[in-house]
Specification:
Blueprint (H helix, E strand, L loop, with lengths): L2 H20 L5 E2 L3 E2 L5 H5 L6 H19 L4 H19 L14 H4 L1 H24 L5 H25 L4
Antiparallel strand pairs: 1-2
Keywords: Membrane, Transmembrane, Transmembrane helix
Protein name: Rod shape-determining protein MreD
Length: about 170
């Protein structure tokens, strides 16, 4: 992992937060599918990222989103959960010959059979916790699961398109 990649990753995180806060805050499809593009930093964080730094970064980004969404820590909690579960997802999805030490998380390098299940696990765990906390009542669990599933599918489509345009030449 070289310095230019960290530099590029940092600015893509800032750009994703700006897009989320400025444009995607009030956009929903049928009031059940929401695009949380800021989760892209959790998906694309390098595999070798120090878990403590990732947890702190997840807390910071989630808290920043919470400030603009007025959600009192729900985004921060969901981001920290995903950052905490990421190593578990890597162990679940480990290829037969293991990960290459230079592997980056991308559709071009990991291929769709690894990338999309990983993306589904990350987004579904984030969205399910977020919408369950938002509901605040177990009577709304069905609606929360519907919102989580539809937002996950929308996120997978958007992130798949982003990966398509982010391919190496």
């Amino acid at each position: 992992m070289n310095f230019t990649f960290n530099y590029k990753w940092f600015f893509s995180v800032v750009f994703a937060i700006a897009i989320q806060v400025l444009f995607l805050r009030d956009i929903a499809i049928a009031n059940v599918a929401f695009c949380f593009i800021y989760t892209w930093f959790l998906v694309k964080a390098p595999m070798q990222t120090n878990p403590l730094l990732l947890l702190l970064g997840a807390m910071s980004v989630g808290w920043l989103i919470d400030i603009f969404y007025n959600t009192h820590g729900m985004h921060a909690f969901a981001c920290v959960l995903v950052a905490w579960l990421r190593p578990v997802y890597f162990r679940i999805l480990t290829p037969a010959n293991g990960y290459d030490e230079r592997s980056s998380i991308s559709l071009a390098e990991m291929k769709w059979l690894w990338f999309f299940p990983y993306l589904f696990l990350v987004l579904m765990s984030h969205h399910l916790l977020l919408f369950t906390l938002e509901a605040g009542d177990w009577t709304l669990i069905g609606y929360s699961v519907l919102k989580a599933l539809s937002s996950t599918l929308l996120g997978m489509a958007v992130f798949g398109i982003l990966e398509f345009f982010n391919r190496p030449e």
